[in-house]
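An example makes the point: we print one protein in full, the chain in one-letter code, the fold tokenised, without further comment:
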Amino acid sequence: MRNLRKLSHRPRPWHADMLLRSFSSAETSTNADADRLYDTIRNLSSTNDLKQYFNSRKIVLSNELVDGVLKRFRFSHGNPLQALEFFRHANRRRGFDHSGFSVDTMLYILGRSRKFDLIWEVLTEMKRTDRSTITPRTMMVVLARVAKVCSVRQTVESFRMFRKFIPEFDTTCFNALLRTLCQEKSMHDARNVYHSLKRDFQPNLQTFNILLSGWKSAEEAENFFEEMKEMGVKPDIVSYNSLVDVYCKGREIDNAYKVVEKMREEDISPDVITYTSIIGGLGLIGQPDKARDVLKEMKEYGCYPDVAAYNAAIRNYCIAKRLGDAYSLLDEMESKGLSPNSTTYNLFFRIFYWSNDLRHSDGLYRRMMDAGCLPNTQSCMFLIKLCKRQENVDFALEIWNDMIQKGFGSYTLVSDVLFDLLCDVGKLAEAEKCFLQMVEKGHKPSNVSFRRIKVLMELANRSEALQNLSEKMRILQS
């Protein structure tokens, strides 16, 4: 052990430092090449120009370069047809094989643009050149885009079409379909599809864990749980947590505790998710103090509360309007080295909003910012609506300027309320400044807000300023 410790403290050989620098410079070079190539492709006027460009130049293509260019098309919402032509040009290059990443990225770009016919063309091309790049993940990428705009039936039809492309069309693929339906449609749709297709596949633990979450009815969850065991699938911590959660949400705390006991009998230790569900359930039946005791009980079992567990306990006290106890838990969190998140603070902001308490909202906002926790859109809406209700322009503008400088919250949603406030109290210069700040960030104010500012500017005979704002709105709309 002493020799190993000595080795670990030896200075790194000079050639190792050179190797790290060469990797770093190579990565930087690839990123720069991807930027240049993406900009060149994007500025070409047609796919024919793009073909001529590649035919007239010998550009060395690597997987890293192709992946980088396609990634830029994805995140910059570039022209999908230009991306496809580039993808196909690379695929025609002798000795070049697309990575799974580039295939999935290309299909995502096409799916976002609803070019589903082209998706099947690309899959057919990849099946001929390298079928191994088509994986269950590829299927999830495609099905997610289909499910977002098409019906459940069309999504299932697309799933069946993948049988021609994926070598092992098995339970992993079935699970990918169910997960997609849970995310893009509803749990109800996913469960209906499960019952209609389960005879064609062999459901496994992952199948049931996908379907067990989000139950509203304890009876339905119990029946599903029994079906799982009848099929010889042994529940794990995820399965049991789903059952505990549905009991807690249904205020059946005794049944939740029975599940916890059964978990221990099967040598499955309840985790922080289990206890968090119980804390929430105890709050629903009006026992916030007992829920706080659960935080201590967790530690006795070697399971330590996280931010979500504390948030659940704080929520209980906020619902009970016992803010002193809620603040005590907030202090305890920080003393344990846990950083409250925007959800934590929003529990308080909600109470302050409904009680019309701007003074405590102001104090908590400053505590939040001092702690380095940026508000989210919900935080901003509670605060800005409260400012509007009390016509507090100074605090509203302070929040807005923090949003502009630090980049948090939805500019569009918050600006609607802010412009209402500024126009109501006749602060036209401030409204114009906030409008221009928003535009500089690339965000378009709503037409309703613009019309309010326009009316005030017309009344104030500020035609030049109005013309400037109108021009910026026109550019953003186009």
Remarks:
- The mean pLDDT is 89.
- The two ends are 68 Å apart (CA to CA).
- Residues 410-478 form one domain.
